[in-house]
Amino acid sequence: MAGSGAARAVWLEAAVNGPWSRARQPGIPISVDEIVADGIACARAGAAIVHVHPYDVATGRQRDDPDIYQPIIEGIRAEVDAVVYPTLPLAGSPDAPEPMAPQERFAAVAELCRRGLLEWAVVDPGTTTLTHLDDLAAGRDGFVYLNPDAHVRFGLATVAAAGVRPAYACYEPGFTRFGAAIAAAVPGLPEPVYRFMFTEGFHFGFPPRRYALEAHRRLLADSAAGAQWMIAGLAVDVRPLIPDAVELGGHVRVGLEDAPFGCSESNEQLVRDAARRIEDAGGRVATAAEVRAALAA
Fold this sequence. Notes:
Layout: E1 9-10, E2 12-15, H1 32-45, E3 49-51, E4 55-56, E5 61-62, H2 66-77, E6 83-85, H3 102-105, H4 107-114, E7 120-122, E8 128-130, H5 133-138, E9 143-145, H6 149-162, E10 165-170, H7 173-184, E11 193-199, H8 210-223, E12 229-234, H9 242-248, E13 251-254, H10 267-280, E14 284-285, H11 288-296
Parallel strand pairs: 1-14, 2-3, 2-13, 3-6, 7-10, 10-11, 11-12, 12-13
Antiparallel strand pairs: 4-5, 8-9
Helix pairs in contact: 1-2, 1-10, 7-8
């Protein structure tokens, strides 16, 4: 990595698998050992933050079980210092097609909080439709990613009680406005980290363009001035947007969860390339300690 100098510390997150299964993203890690190895490799390549989805190896589908999460989180942290955080059941998807009560949805997160294993947790403040453009063209349905108000309130109350920081995925601008408003109503809640979700393969939100990042950033400044933010997305390569994110004061997430389906690069390659782009843009890659310190300030 480049020397620090006066360069700003830019957080780099690796989202190593997501809910897609290998049918859509063949290179993702599935087993506990694979996820741990990938997380360690990404951290050594520059990622201070690692986001994981747990899988049932027998079915190749996501399975939100704290007993799968625990060895993943502990296995990565045993080798590297990183913020390692889980996902949620993607309500409305093939893996969670039936309506879920908030207590069911956040059961794994609540148990991981009880075990003292979490620093961050996903709480997505809004609902959107996720249909890939290929499916749309073929007449196949996507699904409605459901995050009702009651789920958001329950999730925020759960993490607030444990002192765990919520990580917001903002698929649409309204997610930022609602997320800021509902967070302000939860006593003791650590300020959320906002991830602006771009896409090229789906039809939600914005494509990865400077004008879109400016819109997200300005809305966040109006809604939650000073909050930390990242560029991320689904079925998208956000790396060309990295110079803009560095210039405008944001952070970066890459990985096979976010990459276009069928990506030929590994998570480690994506992280190494993103780290290089951050440095080429005048930033430097932050350590996990620096991420924690920035959020504590």
